[in-house]
Design goal:
Layout lengths: L2 E3 L1 H4 L17 E8 L11 H15 L9 E3 L4 E4 L13 H6 E9 L10 H16 L6 E4 L10 H9 L8
Parallel strand pairs: 1-4, 2-5, 2-6, 3-5
Antiparallel strand pairs: 3-4
The structure holds zinc ion (ZN) (2 copies).
Length: 172
C-alpha cells in the first residue's frame, strides 16, 4: 500500500503560478521516468531531497511555475504530491499533452542495459498515483508514455513496456 506524501511533508516551495487549464477527461495519465542514468535512492530518507531538487531544477533552471509533474513515486512505495489534481502539467512536452494528460514520474532511470530495479513498491506507487488522478482529478482511463507525445527515450524501455502490457494499470 503506497503512502502519500503531501507537499508540506516533502518541503515543497509554493508555485509561482497556478494553472487550472487542464481537461484530463479527454486523455488520462502519462508515465515518465526521471533520468537517462540510474537515479533511484538506496535509502528512502534521500527521496524527499530528490523531489526538492527536481522542483528546484524545474523552477530555477527551466523557469517553470512549479515542479512539472502531477505526482512522483519512488522505489520504496511513496507517492510525492506534485502539482496535484486539477492542475495543468508542464511535463508532457506538447500543448495537447499538457492540456489533456496528467504526468506521473517514477524516481528511476538508466539505460536499457543498466536500469534501476523496478520494485513492486514502485509499481504500487504508480497504481496509487494513477488511481488518485482518476478518482480525484477526473482523468480518463488513457495511459501512455512520454514518448507517445514526442520523440524522447522517456520513460525508458522497461517502464514503457509496462505501460503497454497493462502492468501499471491500477487493480480494479
Ligand atoms: Zn518524461
Ligand atoms: Zn523513497
Amino acid at each position: 500500500m503506497a503512502t502519500f506524501v503531501t507537499r508540506a511533508e516533502w518541503g515543497a516551495r509554493p508555485p509561482t503560478n497556478i494553472n487550472n487549464n487542464i481537461t484530463p477527461e479527454n486523455g488520462g495519465v502519462t508515465i515518465h521516468h526521471y533520468s537517462g542514468t540510474k537515479w533511484a535512492a538506496a535509502d528512502h530518507a534521500e527521496c524527499a531531497g530528490q523531489v526538492r531538487a527536481v522542483q528546484n531544477d524545474h523552477m530555477d533552471s527551466n523557469g517553470w511555475a512549479d515542479i512539472a509533474y502531477s505526482h512522483l513515486t519512488c522505489v520504496h512505495g511513496y507517492v510525492f504530491e506534485g502539482r496535484g489534481e486539477g492542475r495543468r502539467t508542464a511535463a508532457n512536452g506538447t500543448d495537447p499533452g499538457n492540456q489533456n494528460w496528467y504526468a506521473v514520474c517514477g524516481l528511476v532511470g538508466g539505460t536499457t542495459q543498466d536500469y534501476d530495479t523496478i520494485t513492486a513498491e514502485l509499481v504500487d506507487g504508480f497504481h496509487h498515483a494513477i488511481g488518485r488522478l482518476r478518482e480525484q482529478g477526473g482523468a480518463a482511463t488513457g495511459l501512455n508514455g512520454h514518448r507517445d507525445h514526442l520523440a524522447t527515450e522517456c520513460p525508458g524501455e522497461k517502464l514503457y513496456a509496462m505501460v503497454q502490457d497493462g502492468s501499471l494499470e491500477p487493480p480494479a
